[in-house]
Amino acid sequence: MQRSLRSPEAKRGLWLITLTTVLASFAMSGQQAVVTNFFENQLHLQGSQFGYITAIREIPGFLIIFLTALFYRLSLPRLTTLALMTLAVGYALFSIATDFATVTPWVILSSMGYHTWLQTQNAMAMSITTEDKSGGILGHVGALGNLGGLVAMVLMAIGFYLKILNFASAFWLTGLAAAGAGIAIFSFPSLRDGLPHIVTTKREPLVYNKDYRFYYMLNLLDGGRQQIFFSFGLWVLAHKYHLDVTNLTIILIAVSLVNTLIGQQVGHLIDRIGERPVLAVANVLYVVALAGYAFVDNLWVLVGCYTIYSIIFPISWMGANTYLGKVATHSDIAPTIAMGLTMQHVAAIVVPLATGYILNFYGYQLPFMIAAGFAIITMVSTRFIDPANQKSAARIAEDAAKLVA
């Protein structure tokens, strides 16, 4: 991977974004491994409250466009450092929560950091290379990030099994890892297509462009589907089938291990055959996994459905972002990712609230049917994306200028 990069700065950038992703993934995966049981066993949240806490967590995702506008004079590495330090504080302070009300501020704070990291990570990773190799870079960085997450989950499983760790110490450990990630990314170089370029501190604060409408569409539909799954997927296993931290973490370890092994190959597959067929197949598998949750009452089947969904989940953001990289100008990528996340979280706020309410009266199966419906609509919608013929006017002009130069 290093040998294919165009400059020493790009090689340094790849090393820094990879290290940061490993540490950030350690923090996020470690928190994910324990937080469901923390909500269920220590805070004693009800099923509907899992939906409500998800909606609260996604509010910063909706507001990310305004946060980006507020800090638009910061360079992406500085903004990312600020985001990861915010994530670190939020994760660490989960340790002092005692109920729904006292955990809510730390859910919001950590979510602010997490959602900012989501948009800046991809923009920096794609700056390391040219658009035709961006899928491979995202796959490479994501796979090694999964390795960091795998280490975290193994540590959590063993620590809780041996009673070396508890919820408080686990949250402090994830906070320290996020802080380390923030320090690592601070010196990320300014790149464009893998080459150094003059640093421009001021960035476009927001971008809504009808030329990127299919990117926005993918984000909006994905937001509805994924938040139902991540609100209730692990909760069903913990609440109905009484799986503890160690059991849930073993499932997450299996998912992370597979993603580590196949992440880069999936990125290369997107580069080779394009976003449309890969996203279409992914959404077929989403429908299968979500229908399993909706219609099958068997622990092992549900574990299989959770595993399938989680393994293919990274394909959605990877495909959407490589598509954006092919149709948008360089300066539009980061703020357009922010706009896409905002649209994603319009659904991510409304849908968990609504389905959490539905769950009180009709059980968890109906929300999963709704999520499967979102996946079917997305599967059909992917037929309309065609990056070669959907470049924005500004991107066409940018490409023409490169040819002249």
Can you describe this structure?
With 405 residues, the protein is an all-alpha fold. The chain has a single domain, classed as MFS general substrate transporter like domains (Growth Hormone, Chain: A). Helix content is 79%, strand content 1%. The chain is built from 13 helices and 2 strands. It has a two-stranded antiparallel ribbon with strand order 1-2. Strand 1 and strand 2 form a beta hairpin. Helix 2 packs across helix 4. The longest helix is centred in the first third of the chain and has 35 residues. The two termini are 27 Å apart.
How far apart the termini lie comes to 27 Å
Please tell me the total number of domains. 1
Most strands sheet: 2 strands, antiparallel
The rounded Rg comes to 20 Å
- Low-pLDDT residue intervals, each spanning 5 or more residues: none
Strand content range: under 5%
Q: Give the overall silhouette.
A: globular
CATH superfamily name?
MFS general substrate transporter like domains
The CATH architecture would be Up-down Bundle
Oligomeric grouping of the chains: single chain
Instruction: Give the helix proportion (percent range).
Output: over 70%
CATH top-level class: Mainly Alpha
| Class of secondary structure makeup | mainly alpha
